[in-house]
Design goal:
The chain is of the alpha+beta class. The protein contains 6 helices and 12 strands. The strands form 3 sheets. It has a 6-stranded mixed β-sheet with strand order 1-4-6-7-8-9, sandwiched between helices. Strands 3-2-5 form a 3-stranded mixed β-sheet. The protein has a 3-stranded antiparallel β-sheet with strand order 10-11-12.
Length: about 270
């Protein structure tokens, strides 16, 4: 089975369908700060989680030029008010151009809000992440789904998600028996995976049929393995062809020797 081509087929099959936003790609608006003094991630655990999941998203959504993925950058959601600003760990916007990269994201200018936001719990932000940010993201900004996750393995596991219901209310997404959550907005399933060598509890995305979305490094290893299998198969075919050629030559030599003996025998009989 061709694992790479199989995934690419499923990638097209399960990719969400959405309209193009009615705004304009906006890299920067003067007067709206695009950075602060806060570090990108609270701990190395958060950094590992953010980098891994962002890489998986970028790899998966690479085939669609209207998907914007951002890490720890500002979202401004009220024109003229620079205090109406958040900086999620990861957010995804559908319907807007992937490039050029933005210094911040301005919902009114782009004509779109993120479809999904991910926050990774830290001691400093956990209460806000579980509390007021739920309403802030889903109600004030118009995000479709919001997820929180605890990446530090030594802390109690916590993976929760909320979405807007058809009536405009907020409902918590029900986990399955394994504690995983399904994102209707992204058409992806998420569950955590314990990495004991790094002490990180990674949140990993899967296609609806359970196929994992790999990182760029994992994909590289898969391609290397596929190449190695192809080379091994080519070598087996080459060896088989050589063996068949050797066997054919052996049969040809044997037939020639047999014909020679028959000729000699016939000559003896005539004598």
């Amino acid at each position: 089975m061709d694992t790479i081509n199989s995934f690419e087929f499923k990638q097209r099959k399960y990719m969400p369908v959405f309209p193009k936003a009615n705004g304009k790609t906006t890299v920067y608006i003067e007067g709206y700060p695009c950075e602060d003094d806060e570090p990108m991630s609270a701990t190395n655990f958060h950094g590992e989680q953010i980098n891994t999941l962002a890489d998986q998203f970028k790899r998966y959504f690479a085939i669609n030029e209207l998907v914007h993925i951002a890490v720890d950058s500002f979202i401004y959601y009220s024109e003229g008010d620079i205090t109406k600003c958040v900086a999620p760990d990861i957010y995804i916007v559908f319907g807007v151009a992937k490039y050029p990269l933005r210094r911040s994201f301005y919902t009114w200018a782009e004509g779109a809000a993120p479809v999904a936001v991910f926050e990774f719990l830290s001691d400093v932000t956990a209460r806000q992440d579980r509390g007021k940010k739920v309403s802030l993201y889903l109600k004030d900004i118009g995000v479709q789904e919001y997820f929180i996750h605890q990446p530090e393995l030594k802390k109690p596991a916590e993976f929760r998600g909320w979405r807007q219901d058809p009536s405009g209310g907020i409902v918590e997404i029900e986990p399955d028996a394994e504690g995983g959550l399904f994102s209707e907005a992204l058409n992806l399933y998420f569950r955590s995976e314990e990495q004991h060598h790094t002490h990180v509890r990674l949140l990993r995305p899967y296609l609806p049929d359970g196929t994992p979305i790999t990182t760029s490094l994992e994909e590289h290893h898969l391609r290397e393995a596929a190449q190695a299998r192809a080379e091994e198969e080519a070598q087996r075919r080459q060896d088989a062809e050589k063996l068949a050629a050797t066997e054919a030559q052996r049969r040809q030599n044997a037939e020639a020797e047999l014909e020679k003996l028959r000729t000699q025998l016939a000559n003896l009989q005539r004598q």
